[in-house]
Amino acid sequence: MGRVSGKVALVTGAASGLGRATAKRLAAEGAQVMIADINETRLAEARDEIAQPGGQAMLHVLDVTSEEAWERAVAETVAAFGKLDILVNCAGVLSIADIESETFEKWSWQHRVNLDGVFLGMKHGFKAMRQGGTGGSIINFSSVLGILSLSNIAAYSSAKGGVRAITKSAALHGGPLGIRVNSIHPGHVRTEMVIDGVSAADYPDEVWQKLAEQYPIGRVGEPGDIADAVLFLASDESSFVTGLEMVVDGGYSIQ
Questions:
Q1: Same domain (yes/no): 21, 55
Q2: 203 is catalytic
Q3: For the chain: N or C, fewer Cβ within 10 A?
Q4: Coil, strand or helix: which one is 204?
């Protein structure tokens, strides 16, 4: 307990899935957390869930593709908690399509949310962390599919690969400022989005089994697996870690 006590975090995509699990984990370890998402109803549920065991959280409705919205979110976080120590760029979207069938509209949408949103978050997160004067930690959600790829995720893979690259540039910029920047690359994780997709299949049990067989560790990930990795990168335990691609995929990518 208390691995990020005294720290202030802003987590996007926090209404559900990995963002929600991450926000809960940081709050449970002592951080004050501003949870941000475009879904206000789910965001309020997440805030109440964090607060129930005594965690400290406020919510901010955020469209990560808007620079003005990012400016407001960061400013409100600093106004509410006095500083910004941790930024987790987790908001993301996915379209299943190959390079021929993907539409330019969905291509652009995925890049706006998955890549532009990370750029804007870092731009304004850097500013707040510099003003705070004590550095900080930025964790950008990429994917194992930002390193490897599949034939039917052309836009998603492109955007997540961009997150991988921009993280390294930002880490080089942030090093002298005491701001660490790392990317995290999950494999399949049992989030609501994945559960809904599998449940829609004709034989969901077989789909889960086939997914598990792709992983040397013998199972798909759980949200807590990823939240624990984010916690390490957010904490002072990783004070000598920057520019890292932290792959949390049960061995999927080493085959």
A1: yes
A2: no
A3: N
A4: helix
Alpha helices (runs of H) in the chain, residue ranges in sequence order: 17-28, 40-51, 67-81, 104-111, 117-132, 154-174, 192-199, 204-213, 223-234
Place of tokens 């809960």: 24
Question: Which residues span the domain enclosing 141?
Answer: 8-185+224-246
Q: Within 10 Å of residue 98's Cβ, how many Cβ atoms?
A: 12
One domain, residues 44 and 147: yes
CATH code where residue 75 lies: 3.40.50.720
Would you say residue 19 lies in a domain?
Answer: yes
Q: Answer with the residue of higher pLDDT: 230 or 96.
A: 230
Instruction: Answer yes or no: do 142 and 192 share one domain.
Output: no
Over range 121-146, report the average pLDDT.
Answer: 96
DSSP summary character for residue 62: -
232 in a structural domain: yes
Residue type (1 letter), 9 = A
Q: What is the pTM of this model?
A: 0.96
Q: Characterise 138 by phi-psi region: left (phi > 0), alpha (psi -120 to 50), beta (else).
A: beta
DSSP structure string for 134-202:
S-EEEEEE--GGGTS--TTBHHHHHHHHHHHHHHHHHHHHHGGGTEEEEEEEE--B--HHHHHHHHTSS
User: Is the domain of 181 the same as that of 191?
Assistant: no
Which residue among 156, 203, 215, 252 is the active-site one?
156
- With CA atoms as reference, report the closest residue to 129 among 170, 185, 68, 183: 170
Predicted confidence at residue 70, as pLDDT, reads: 98
